[in-house]
Amino acid sequence: MSKKIITAGLILFIMLAIVFGFNSYKKIDRVRSMDINDINLGNVRDGIYTGSYDAGLVSARVRVAVKNHRITRIEIMEHNNGRGEPAENIVKKILKKQSLKVDAISGATISSKVICKAIEIGLEKGQ
Q1: Of 13, 114, 115, 118, which has the fewest Cβ atoms less than 10 A away?
Q2: Are 81 and 58 a contacting pair, CB within 8 Å?
Q3: What are residue 71's DSSP bridge partners?
Q4: What does CATH list as the number for 41-124?
Q5: 104 contact partners, CB below 8 Å, separation of at least 6
Q6: Phi, psi of 57 (to 5 degrees)
Q7: What does the alpha-carbon distance between residue 71 and residue 65 come to, in Å, rounded to a whole number?
Q8: Pick from 97, 86, 94, 83: nearest CA to 118
Q9: Domain ranges of the chain
Q10: Mean pLDDT of the chain
């Protein structure tokens, strides 16, 4: 191959990497500033609800069980996260506090917020 073709390919690769990186950064920044709305469990009927949220590089699908206006179980059915697996501990905080207004897991803020948003979306279905 000629040097021109290799150089052109390298330039194209670098440009695509920059565009992909910029788009990923915008999505991540949007999640960082995203609000998680607390759900009034007094308005949620007994049942099992699913919710999902996709932030691009991080996504989650959950199943939430509610009985007598209390969250009794949260199952993370899917969590695509890169290195955010520790964020799954957010479930314990939510169950203990019975609220989505919990602190994110340190070092896994994006995954924590995505899981919380998926739970919020699921609980909204029970209102």
Answers
A1: 13
A2: yes
A3: 66
A4: 3.90.1010.20
A5: 87, 90, 112, 113
A6: -75, -20
A7: 6
A8: 94
A9: 41-124
A10: 89
Strands 59-67 and 70-80: antiparallel
- Condensed to tens digits (0 to 9), the pLDDT of residues 64-118 reads 999 999 999 999 999 998 767 789 999 999 999 999 999 999 889 999 999 999 9
> What is the structure's pLDDT at 18?
76
Q: Is the pLDDT of residue 59 over 70?
A: yes
Taking Cα atoms as reference points, which of 79, 73, 89, 21 lies closest to residue 53?
79
The kind and range of the H/E element at 51 are: strand 47-54
Residues 6+ apart with CB under 8 A from 105: 86, 87, 89, 90, 111, 112
Cα separation, 83 vs 94, in Å, equals 21
- In angstroms, the CA 103 to CA 119 distance is 15
Q: Say which amino acid occupies 82.
A: G
Q: What is the pTM of this model?
A: 0.82
Q: Which residue has the tokens 């990923």?
A: 24
Alpha-carbon distance of 11 to 33, in angstroms, equals 33
